[in-house]
Amino acid sequence: xxxxxLEEIRKAVREAHSGDGHLSASMVARVMAEFARVAKxxxxxxxxxxxxxxxxxEVLEMLGKGMKNRQIAEALFLSExxxxxxxxxxxxxxxxxxxxxxxxxxxxxxxx
Length: 112
Fold this sequence. Notes:
The protein is mostly helical. It has six helices and no strands. Helix 3 packs across helix 5 and helix 4 crosses helix 5 (80-94).
């Protein structure tokens, strides 16, 4: 990797002093690649969870946090039976078991 020249360093210092940021060309490429990766992951999650209702998404998020049905019911002011029905809907729509659904929620950042 090429070291920055004196003029590039001066420019970076001036930009930092004025409140602006400075990124080298290689850093810009890395940042852009990370933005693309995050955007792709978000799009995949959107597609994956598209069939779920808003309430099912809330329940899935809480599953991702490791909460039990009773805790979810209390947090959402629902009966435990209703939570179980939502969990069943989630598992059916995503074709997963409860453990894999919780892991999926964590992977996609739904666990807060």
